[in-house]
Design goal:
single chain, alpha+beta, Thrombin, subunit H, 2 domains, 6-stranded antiparallel β-barrel, 6-stranded antiparallel barrel
Length: about 260
Amino acid sequence: MKPISIAITVALAMTMSAPSHADLVSTVAQVKPAIAIVGTYKATNSPRFAMRGTGFVVGEGGVGNKLVTNAHVLVPPADADPQAALVVQLRVGASGWQTRAAQVLEVDRQHDLALLRFEGPAVTAFKVGNSQGVQEGQSVAFMGFPIGGALGFSPVTHRAMVSSIAPAALPSPTAGQLNPQIIRSVRDSNPFDIFQLDGTAYPGNSGGPLFDPDTGEVLGVVSMVLIKSTRESALTHPSGISYAVPSRYVLEMLERNAAN
């Protein structure tokens, strides 16, 4: 075979074997409009908006008016201020935000998930994938607002790997710290599969999507950030251990609320 023919054959083979999905740069641009901030709004407060965590829009056909976040991101009923409204902030353009009133459709405390519906027209949404095929060692990415508004309301994306898939139960969101005794107790209480990640998530990432870096499909929801002591120490001494609830539980929740 002539050298030029060999070159053409090699080039063709590389083209055919190249992945058809977009790379992470393209994926981030695709899904970024569907990321959201969950918080409360009270006209007499300063600031009026108080961020609680991250959320992401879900829906059919690439648009939707429902949002998924963590159950612990919501204000506990006992601590709720009746004058403070639950709201979500949705991206408008490259850097703008629009505040929409929201209501809770379901809270799944066992899996630390919550489904909200916000007012107004539907917006760009994530596609929720099936997490059943996720494997240990698989590359993933997650997006959110680490350290809340301290770094500004600009979504941040992290690469990660699924370092372990193991049965686990989530501790109460009011638990201050996790220790071996708490971990043992929650593992013995109605366990379910959870993804352990080697990427470091911070307070503020809770409720953000864990997604396939090639397709943008949601594979889980970031939850229960483990830090060594206080919120402030996460900046200088992150534990490096993060978890995500598999998206199969999101799909089940969406199915239960399909008519809402």
